[in-house]
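Why should sequence recovery work at all? Because a backbone constrains its sequence more than one might expect. Tight turns favour small or flexible residues, buried strands favour hydrophobic ones, and helices have their own preferences. The token representation captures these environments compactly. In the example below, the structure is given first.
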């Protein structure tokens, strides 16, 4: 077992626990606000700097990609060199990166700004949960702290678009990336004096080789999925995916051989670790994917302005907040398996309604209901996923568990947004191509015009402005094509929800089995035995 810089705390919670928790939640807010503020601004960004649908997908996933690709490595660095220090550095670096994104002159610069913002979040976000786990003893108080952290963190990803929508009504699109600035400053002011430093931190060396491998394998995986629908063809995307698979294989080989692995595969093989990790990835990915496609649906198809499109997703935030304490109580009374499955029981019908009810004439009641269902489902499922992960490893490796918790959210968010964005792009382009072919004037449509019409909804709007005599037909076809593409994306959400529920039902133990496994893990860790995967 790894040596630590301080022994485990004997107190159930830290001194001034309320202020410490507020400081850590504000630190998490800095990261989560940035995850989704771009979604509501995508149509404005496309019109402002000429971003294609593929570039919009990369802008949307840029922050989650930066976080996902760096979170394991940076979490290990925090375990070794100081979680509080890394948290403060991450919040500090968020400030210049926010300004780069706000005044980006091209899509490429904006994508880079979002990626850098995500890397700064990778410094801050994993340390917030790691500090909660290190400072609160295992038990009801820690579970409640994690539930509040989880609900507010995810809720920030939903409230951000509301503020962003209001800003887009009054100032330019870049202002949405400045929302985080006052929150980061507040976080620095709170974390500095109130959060303890150097509690239960490892003294073992950091596995830098594994860290570098993890950065590139995750980056190539998400980029490969995100660009599969690029008009330039799938060649580069397939190459990135193939390279990612090779790096994953090298990473696993290296982690099994090294003395101090970045990602201890023995712990990762525990059922109370890998099952909730995958389930949480699907849950948070479903939440972010529904926001990504849904914001474009609300603005492009239902013609909501940016402010009302942001307001439209508030039921998700309300659902998350309302069930946070209920989720913690259910874990204690019914177990994590029951609570996870209950979460999927809400998320799945949300995607089914998106697939069957959302169209050009959808009243808001159906929009709000969908977001409420997905928000409640995510609120129920994210707490047991995080709790199980952090409880299944010794406190000296909590950075690995918290990094996995963040990875399940951010890699899940990146992959689901990338998959749903790619399906949306492919479906839209195919449907618009068929619509053009069906018109009597199809042979008169120039190749560059045809390409622009199939590129994205915003691009079709630009073509419509150039040909006002055909404007109505062009926009109508764009809306219809967008709905066709969106249905492919919603179907992916349905399938992912079913897979997640089946995985939990078949592989995660019931309440007593969970308690028995957790006790077995603690016994192994206490005697320093090499942990083994337990079926």
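From this structural description, the recovered sequence reads:
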């Amino acid at each position: 077992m790894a040596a630590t810089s301080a022994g485990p705390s004997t107190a159930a919670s830290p001194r001034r626990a309320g202020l410490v928790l507020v400081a850590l939640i504000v630190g998490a807010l800095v990261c989560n606000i940035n995850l989704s503020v771009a979604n509501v601004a995508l149509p404005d960004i496309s019109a402002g700097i000429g971003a294609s649908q593929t570039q919009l997908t990369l802008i949307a996933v840029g922050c989650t990609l930066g976080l996902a690709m760096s979170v394991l490595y940076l979490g290990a660095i925090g375990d070794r060199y100081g979680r509080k220090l890394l948290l403060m550095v991450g919040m500090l670096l968020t400030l210049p990166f926010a300004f780069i994104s706000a005044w980006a002159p091209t899509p490429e610069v904006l994508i880079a700004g979002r990626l850098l913002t995500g890397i700064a979040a990778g410094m801050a976000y994993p340390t917030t949960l790691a500090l909660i786990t290190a400072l609160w003893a295992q038990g009801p108080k820690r579970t409640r702290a994690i539930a509040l952290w989880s609900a507010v963190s995810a809720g920030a990803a939903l409230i951000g678009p509301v503020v962003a929508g209001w800003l887009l009504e009054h100032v330019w699109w870049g202002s949405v990336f400045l929302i985080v600035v006052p929150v980061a400053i507040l976080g620095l002011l709170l974390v500095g004096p109130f959060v303890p430093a150097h509690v239960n931190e490892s003294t073992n060396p950091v596995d830098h080789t594994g860290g570098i491998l993890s950065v590139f394998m995750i980056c190539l995986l998400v980029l490969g999925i995100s660009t599969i629908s690029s008009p330039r063809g799938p060649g580069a995307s397939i190459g990135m995916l193939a390279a990612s698979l090779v790096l994953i294989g090298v990473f696993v080989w290296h982690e099994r051989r090294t003395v101090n692995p970045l990602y201890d595969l023995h712990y990762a093989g525990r059922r109370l670790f890998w099952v909730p990790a995958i389930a949480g990835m699907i849950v948070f990915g479903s939440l972010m994917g529904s926001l990504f496609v849904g914001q474009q649906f609300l603005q492009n198809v239902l013609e909501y302005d940016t402010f009302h499109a942001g307001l439209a997703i508030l039921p998700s935030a309300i659902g998350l907040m309302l069930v946070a304490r209920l989720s913690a109580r259910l874990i204690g009374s019914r177990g994590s398996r029951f609570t996870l499955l209950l979460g999927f029981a809400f998320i799945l019908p949300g995607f089914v309604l998106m697939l069957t009810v959302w169209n050009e004439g959808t009243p808001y009641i159906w929009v709000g209901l969908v977001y409420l269902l997905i928000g409640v489902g995510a609120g129920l499922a994210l707490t047991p996923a995080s709790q199980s992960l952090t409880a299944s490893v010794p406190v000296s490796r909590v950075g690995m568990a918290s990094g996995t918790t963040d990875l399940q959210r951010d890699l899940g968010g990146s992959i689901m947004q990338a998959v749903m964005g790619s399906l949306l792009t492919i479906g839209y382009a195919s449907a618009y191509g068929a619509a053009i072919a069906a018109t009597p004037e199809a042979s008169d449509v120039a190749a560059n015009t045809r390409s622009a019409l199939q590129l994205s909804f915003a691009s079709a709007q630009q073509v419509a402005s150039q040909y006002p005599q055909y404007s109505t037909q062009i926009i109508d076809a764009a809306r219809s094509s967008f709905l066709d593409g969106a249905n492919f994306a919603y179907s992916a959400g349905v399938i992912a929800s079913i897979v997640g529920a089946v995985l939990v039902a078949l592989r995660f133990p019931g309440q007593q089995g969970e308690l028995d496994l957790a006790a077995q893990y603690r016994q192994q860790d206490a005697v320093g035995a090499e942990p083994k995967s337990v079926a």
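A few observations help interpret the result. The chain is about 80% helix and 0% strand.
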